[in-house]
Amino acid sequence: MHALRTACLILAAALVATYATLALIERPARPQPITRPPLQFQEQDGELRVWGAWELVKGDSAYDVRAVEIRCYKAQGQCISATALVLNHNEGQDVEAQAHLFTISEWTAQRLEAKAGPGKDDCSEWTLALYPADRSGKLNWKGSAGCEVDAGEAVLVGDE
């Protein structure tokens, strides 16, 4: 009888441990808090550097955070935008990086406008507008002719 009771106790302990382990494994990972970079504009000698994050105001996106660094060069007539995207999901978080090369169409003291796309792997057309005097900016995108892309808009923001 003692052996049967011991076997039942061991079986019960194993079942409890198994259920506890499964509960921990299947529970979605809690997303870690993410701080967006502060909004910064630096302009010097025909070069504009911007740091911040894109906040979606129109369109749909699965990404929760979009940190960005933009570098514009007046002499070359180009801007390079590097964006880090964070996606929260049931298994945790994923990070994706994107880079876009923009051609500057207007650069004044008040406004810089540049366009990108469509590219070889992406049929989206992007318009970047930066306002250094106001420390603001926006990004618009849409599909080119015959392209199935939802249009969208994001504004430049940053944490303190």
List the main descriptive attributes of the protein structure presented here.
51% strand; globular; 160 residues; alpha+beta; 8-stranded antiparallel barrel; 16% helix; 1 helix; 2 domains; single chain; Lipocalin
Q: Can you characterise this structure?
A:
The chain has 2 domains: 1-30; 40-157, Beta Barrel (Lipocalin). Helix content is 16%, strand content 51%. The chain is built from 1 helix and 9 strands; from the N terminus they run αβββββββββ. It has an 8-stranded antiparallel barrel. A hairpin with a 7-residue loop joins β6 (112-116) and β7. The chain is globular, with a radius of gyration of 25 Å.
Question: What are the SSEs and their pairings?
Answer:
Blueprint: H1 2-26, E1 40-44, E2 47-58, E3 65-73, E4 78-89, E5 92-107, E6 112-116, E7 124-131, E8 136-143, E9 152-157
Antiparallel strand pairs: 1-2, 2-3, 2-9, 3-4, 4-5, 5-6, 6-7, 7-8, 8-9
Largest sheet: 8 strands, antiparallel, barrel
Q: How many strands appear in the DSSP assignment?
A: 9
Helix content: 10-25%
The spatial strand order of the largest sheet comes to 2-3-4-5-6-7-8-9
SSE arrangement, N to C: HEEEEEEEEE
Binned strand content: over 45%
Runs with pLDDT <50, length 5+?
Answer: 6-25
What gyration radius follows from the Cα positions, in whole Å?
Answer: 25 Å
The DSSP helix count reads 1
Q: Measure the end-to-end span.
A: 69 Å
Number of domains: 2
The CATH architecture classification of the largest domain is: Beta Barrel
Mass-distribution shape: globular
Mean pLDDT: 79
Alpha-beta classification: alpha+beta
The name CATH uses for the topology of the largest domain is Lipocalin
CATH class of the largest domain: Mainly Beta
The oligomeric state of the chains shown is: single chain
